[in-house]
Amino acid sequence: MKKSKNKVLGVICLVLIVAFLVSCGQSPEDHSGESDNQESTSIQEGKDATSNDEALENEDEDFTIIDSVPELNAKEKRAKDILSSMTLEEKVGQMFFVRCPDAEAVQKITQYNLGGYILFSRDFKDSTKKQVLENTQSYQNASKIPMIIGVDEEGGTVNRISRYPLFRSTPFSSPQSLYREGGFELITSDTEEKAKLLKSLGINLNMAPVCDVSENKNDYIYKRTFGKDAKETSLYVKTVTEAMVREKLGCVLKHFPGYGNNKDTHTGIAYDMRDYETFTSSDFLPFKAGIEAGAGAILVSHNVVDCMDKEKPASLSKNVHRILREELQFEGVIMTDDLVMEGIRKFTGESEAAVMAVLSGNDMLCATNFESQIPAVISAVNNGEIPIEQIDDSVLRILIWKIDLGIIE
């Protein structure tokens, strides 16, 4: 009887041992494709086959990783320190990138806490390099937070500086001309030369490259573009952006979401009726290339893009900005085209345009009538129309961009 019981107990024990081994064991194939140093992954999954001592050791390491809070990178920490001491007026002023006034340019920097000046042809006409540098230095000296000093020096039809022989013997050529003459090698050297010239004048931002895709010579935007399809335009944008990043000159990808064959928004409202697939398969590609190459800013056009927002110009559309942030995953500074353009003036009033531009998701507003628009934005924050958190997020991006470019040390 005892023997029979012992046999039964023995069988039961054997079955339990086998079951335990099967449940804990793994075949060699279970580890295929894993590297020898993937202990933390196996611990997280709860399927580690290491000894108890090793498991406990690695488990302690895991808890340290989970409980630790990632440290802010140095640039973000520096930007947050600056932001924490700024008044509302200083924050809103930082968001305005304005046409340099004809008179009292230095005084208006301190009066409105401006984030930057855009220089135009009139700021170079009849001036020497020394005079321009003295002017830009006077702007920086007057500003509590160093300014972005920008210009449109695209080459070809848009040259604010090199059109004058005192700055360059011949104007910078268009992207299309450069490519025909010397391919991407010449485009790179041309970009580097521009960067050196601009920086020698105290200019830290070129409003370029143009990312619009146009192969039709009849398009308004054609002469300013690379003149080729999306794939080749993307390579052009990548080449220019990388060169500008190396030279520590700020760049702006424009005109999101892509100009297409639309008319000039300087003179009126333009309606873009193309389908969304056209943008995802073509127009977005050069912008993606520029983002991947390290561009710090993107300018949004005033075109009304039907497939994204039937009612508002892209620069005032929340959905267009959502696409740029979420679908293209852009984390840098978004800015409007100049709000004085007819594409906006025929749509809404100048003060309303500034408030709408902030609410739609722009970090910086290119503006001419800033003296009425800055108070309008401040008032909208004070009355709760614009959340202060949104202002803070935008100013933080601007400050990080300035730090990244070496404008803020």
Describe the secondary-structure layout.
Elements: H1 2-24, H2 39-45, H3 52-67, H4 74-84, H5 88-94, E1 96-99, H6 105-112, E2 116-119, H7 129-142, E3 148-151, E4 153-155, E5 158-159, H8 175-200, E6 205-206, H9 230-246, E7 250-256, E8 271-272, H10 276-292, E9 297-300, E10 304-305, H11 318-327, E11 333-336, H12 342-345, H13 350-360, E12 365-367, H14 370-382, H15 388-404
Parallel strand pairs: 1-2, 1-12, 2-3, 3-6, 6-7, 7-9, 8-10, 9-11
Antiparallel strand pairs: 4-5
Structure description:
Helix 2 (39-45) crosses helix 3 (52-67) and helix 9 packs parallel to helix 10 (276-292). The protein is of the alpha/beta class. The protein has helices spanning 2-24, 39-45, 52-67, 74-84, 88-94, 105-112, 129-142, 175-200, 230-246, 276-292, 318-327, 342-345, 350-360, 370-382, 388-404; strands at residues 96-99, 116-119, 148-151, 153-155, 158-159, 205-206, 250-256, 271-272, 297-300, 304-305, 333-336, 365-367. It is built from 15 helices and 12 strands. The strands form 3 sheets. An 8-stranded parallel beta sheet has the order 11-9-7-6-3-2-1-12.
Summary keywords:
single chain, 409 residues, alpha/beta, eight-stranded parallel beta sheet, two-stranded antiparallel sheet, 15 helices, globular, disordered N terminus
